[in-house]
């Protein structure tokens, strides 16, 4: 990490990248978004085609591959939990809440693909 002395206004007029989290890690950010979106697309299309193994595959690709690569990209991954604290003022925080909602709802939707006989599965006699 290179350091340089900037005057109080120079950061506004000079190119000053945030070196802590992007230097040399741009490919990780690209891969994280790629796998997150590909997984979400597989999940979404599989729902319309009623291809249940695709639900599981899309959910896993989106959350596991995309999520772990996002964590590898972060400069200080142990601080990640703080993203959830300010949804009223942070777009990143709201986005993480949406991802968490997708993870939880997707888990309960994908679970009958792996475990049979759950009350909310399509072949259950509880809902019929």
Principal-axes shape call: elongated
| Uncertain regions spanning at least 5 consecutive residues | none
Class from secondary-structure proportions: mainly alpha
Query: How much is the radius of gyration in Å?
Result: 20 Å
Average pLDDT, rounded to a whole number, is 81
* Main sheet overview: none
Number of strands: 0
Give the SSE order as H and E letters: HHHHH
Distance between the termini: 62 Å
**Helix amount, in percent?**
55-70%
Figure out the total of helices: 5
The proportion of strand residues reads under 5%
Report what the structure shows.
The protein is mostly helical and 128 residues long. It has a domain at 23-78 and 86-114. The protein has five helices and no strands. The chain has helices at 10-13, 19-22, 26-49, 52-73, 91-114. Helix 3 (26-49) packs antiparallel against helix 4 (52-73) and helix 4 runs antiparallel to helix 5. The N and C termini lie far apart (62 Å).
